[in-house]
Amino acid sequence: MPERILFYPGCSFETAAGYKQSLQALCSRLDISMPHMASWSCCGSTACISLQGEKGMYPAARILAQAGSEGATMLVTGCNGCFNALRKAAKLMHQDQGFKERTRERLKQQDGLTLCPDLEIKHLLQVLVKKVDAGDRTRHPHVQKLRVAAYYGCLFSRPWTDVDDPEHPQMLDRFMQELGFTPVDYSLKTACCGAAHALAFREQTEMLVERIIRSMQDKQADLAAVICPLCQLNLESAQLSLGLPRLPVLFFTQVAGLALGIPRSELGLDKLLIAPEKI
Amino acid sequence: MDREYQNTLTQHLLQSFPGECTESCIQCGTCSGSCPLARDMDIGPRRILALLRDSYLEEVLRSRSIWLCVSCNACLTRCPQGVPVPDIMYLLRLMAMDNGLAHREYKMPHLFQSFVRQVEKRGRVSESRLAASYGLLHPGDAVSRLGLGLKLLTRGRI
């Protein structure tokens, strides 16, 4: 079966600061074909599972079946939360026969869909790491001497996702290095940004972000590269009220685009709340 | 909640997880030490597991902690016994709602309800709709976010 990659955007993707533009620019530069799923819905996030129990896992399971029905062999997402939810649903169906059967039945009854057990689920980072190589980068000394804090956030490689070392992931650091940047070694790469709790528990989650940003700045980072829309929003917006020197928070696709010499105007940098002046 | 009811409900909770993994907790406190929000919790995750062991369920269901858990899976990553703390938190939330024990001040139930309503109605969630519908119940939080909302709006992010 030929590989067919579909992209699952997730609810936060559209409004993310330039994630969409920079991914489009990268895909066209690198000749990557990764159309969006024709019919996608929310993964359910922690809200559905918190209030609905097992039923709350259904939205994620349905996305997998839907992707299969659209002919995908691989489903890619650029959001850590969606990534975790999708991988969790797939793993649960693998581990728990009862859950699998109930899901199969519900898919058939409610949506006329069937399970797609061979679908690969990947994070966008895993895909781009394979598609970009050092030969693609342009020699732009000003951009490439930048010190980049690679920030993974909490769910990229933890139980259910398990794609890198959970305590000391390296994938994004290596990617940044390959692109010519200097990754900085700081301790809070996988610390949680506060996720949706930022709305209800602002004070508490801003303290989480403060620790993360300080830890990056202590190692003289010029910018943070992130791989999740919610991480980007939290890391960026909390800084507006924290009395710290401001650190630009870019999507890793924007950072990669800079290294490949893609014009800034195609990378959506104007959508950032903290302008990357040094770049 | 009387003792018997708490016992029954706790048993149900513990049996929802395979292999007695919840009872295998050795109270080492790695979960509480790893939790980014433990300092703001009224009862940390280690203590929650201790209370569940003795069926002191009501105290747990009334706590703010179960709503403060941000599902980052740090505890699950590090637990030497593989206790599925985040999944236990989800089930505790469900039980707290069913028994009317989620305090209004905990706010996350309202955020989750707004979220689930959107998923059910539209299939997808719009962040601005979510903020608006949650903001009607907690206007203080909404007002404190107006500045951010405007900045996002002017950059075409809403």
Q: Your description of this structure?
A:
Chain A has two domains: 5-124, Up-down Bundle (Glutathione S-transferase Yfyf (Class Pi), Chain A, domain 2), CATH 1.20.1050.140; 133-271, Rossmann fold (3-Layer(aba) Sandwich). Chain A has 279 residues and is α/β, with parallel strands linked by helices. Chain A contains twelve helices and seven strands. In chain A, the strands form two sheets. Chain A has a four-stranded parallel sheet with strand order 5-4-6-7, sandwiched between helices. A three-stranded parallel sheet of chain A has the order 1-2-3. Helix content of chain A is 45%, strand content 9%. Chain B has 158 residues and is mostly helical. Chain B has two domains: 3-102, Fumarate Reductase Iron-sulfur Protein, Chain B, domain 2, CATH 1.10.1060; 107-154, no CATH class. Chain B contains eleven helices and no strands. Chain B has helices at residues 3-15, 30-34, 45-53, 57-61, 65-68, 74-78, 85-98, 108-122, 127-137, 139-144, 146-154. Chain B starts with a helix and ends with a helix. In chain B, 38% of the residues are buried. The chains are: A alpha/beta (279), B mainly alpha (158).
| Overall average pLDDT of chain A | 95
Q: In the residues of chain A, how many domains can be counted?
A: 2
Largest sheet of chain A: 4 strands, parallel
CATH architectural label of the largest domain in chain B: Orthogonal Bundle
Strand content of chain B: under 5%
**Helix fraction bin of chain B:** 55-70%
* Largest interface by Cβ-Cβ < 8 Å: A-B, 48 and 48 residues
The first-to-last residue Cα distance of chain A is 43 Å
At CATH level 3, the topology of the largest domain in chain B is Fumarate Reductase Iron-sulfur Protein, Chain B, domain 2
Helical stretch tally of chain A: 12
**Overall pLDDT score of chain B:** 94
Shape of chain A: globular
The Rg value of chain B, from CA coordinates, equals 18 Å
Query: What's the level 1 CATH class of the largest domain in chain A?
Result: Alpha Beta
Tell me the total number of β-strands of chain A: 7
CATH class assignment of the largest domain in chain B: Mainly Alpha
**Which residue ranges of chain A are poorly predicted, with pLDDT under 50 across at least 5 consecutive positions?**
none
Classify the beta-strand content of chain A into a percent band.
5-15%
